[in-house]
Amino acid sequence: MNKPHRILVNQRGIFNLWWHWTLGFGLCTIPMLITVSIPQIWLPFVGFALYMILHRIIDKNHYNASNPVCSMILTICARTLFWSSIVMVIINSLHTSWLEPMLLNPAKFNHNIRFLAVLISAPVTFIITLICKITGRNNEQCRICQFKQGTECNRGFLGHLFAMEANRQINAMLSLSALLTALTYAYYFTFYINTNINTPDELVFIWIPGILYIMSVILFGMRYLGIYQYYRKEVAHQADTHADSTLLRIMILCEDFVYLSSDSEKQLDTPAEFYIPHRDRMDPSEVKTILQKRTNCNDCHVRFLYNSPGFNSDCNVLHFVSFISDAEVFDGNSGLNGQWYTLHQIVKEQKAGHVAAALTQEINRIHRVVMAWKSYDRNGHRLYPIKNYTPIFNLRDFPKWDVDLDDPVWIAVSTNNEDKPLFHLRNLWRKYVAGGGKVEKD
Known about the structure:
- The structure is a single chain.
- The protein is elongated.
- The protein has helices at residues 3-33, 43-62, 72-94, 100-103, 117-135, 140-149, 156-190, 199-235, 284-295, 327-334, 343-351, 357-375, 408-415, 423-434, and strands at residues 245-254, 257-262, 268-269, 273-277, 300-308, 316-324, 339-342.
- It starts with a helix and ends in an 8-residue tail after the last helix.
- α5 packs antiparallel against α7 (156-190) and α6 runs antiparallel to α13.
- It is of the alpha+beta class.
- Strands 1, 2, 3, 4, 5, 6 and 7 form a seven-stranded mixed beta sheet that branches.
């Protein structure tokens, strides 16, 4: 990607952080604002319709390689709308004429005001946001983004910004939902009488959520305007160290061993990392020629792994793997200062924080895609009639694995397959309701 285009993508990414907060939080606020303006039997369907809008946007964002965005806050808001609507449907069901006498005392309930949306949405938002806060970058939304777009170490300015601001927006949503939950329930149990909605009731249950939303939009707008100005003045026009280049990363394997060396920060990583003139794609034979010239190793077989677009870093990254038949010969001829590590040793070093993020991403992607390919077909159905079957993963078998590691289908299968809860229901929802369709390789 050339520099002007990358600057434009980064500026869009900054704006989209504010726009996603405005859109997601705004759609979540709508049911609170109209809670007494429409018949409450219809309010859950409004929530489901808003959920479908957000779900469609998130689904498009997943594989929008030309315009990377962070959809974390949209995911939280979509789940809030969905589960809040489910609770509303349950409450409406309890008020049916055939069920109410058995479960409820009709004298204590108002059919016209069965619930107040903020009393449902606020605690649901708090619970969902708290779960996202606890899971951190291990939640499904972040994992899909990392496997498709790469970790922040591969994504330059915008990758680090997304990681920082996603956490900030989660904290903001957690604080606002906790405040709304505490305030509205304190007022509900202290002052509210379930006969009508008076002016103080409107202020607490309707206007305060709207006021908090507008204030948050203004504050985040000011923040992202400041970040945009900082980027334009301090970052955008800095000289690119590797402008119009491509970073070539080659993982070197021999049987069950990976050849690694420590960098200046004492992080284990592949020593076969080279900058070349910009290329969107490369044939493995070309990479083999480069590797042979740099390492004096003629006995190697090179295979393409995947491409990291590198939209906001200096250059894109092409990932390859090279299979070496004789480790001792390679050590003597390569001139690279490294050692051979088993996968078990790498995992141990990774837990200690001694493995480079780029290598961690490569190993995680290989493991995830291969395990999905070994366990399921392209539609997510089990290849073997054994629930939660876990196949063997040995690096020595890598040359025999006939799977495209650059195919997003296997990433989708790893997150949604027959061993995941509600697999068939999820497929029906995506096919007929959300409109996401099947994920296919570009």
